[in-house]
Write a structure and sequence with these properties.
- This protein is mostly helical.
- The protein contains 2 helices and no strands.
- The chain is elongated and about 45 Å long.
């Protein structure tokens, strides 16, 4: 039982740390001026399936 509890606590600590790191990354991104952000190029979006269906396509 103690081993399972330690594993669960370890997982929760790692998960919490991961959430904290993502939160910090978001906070850093919030301070980037909009004119310094490059738009996503269509060829990149197609290669990474980032293009969403247009509303007219329905």
């Amino acid at each position: 039982m103690r081993l399972r509890l330690n594993a669960a606590c370890s997982f929760l600590i790692e998960w919490s740390r991961s959430i904290d790191q993502k939160s910090l990354q978001i906070q850093k991104l919030e301070h980037i001026p909009v004119d310094q952000i490059e738009p996503i190029r269509p060829e990149y979006a197609l290669g990474h399936r980032l293009i969403m269906a247009q509303p007219d396509a329905y």
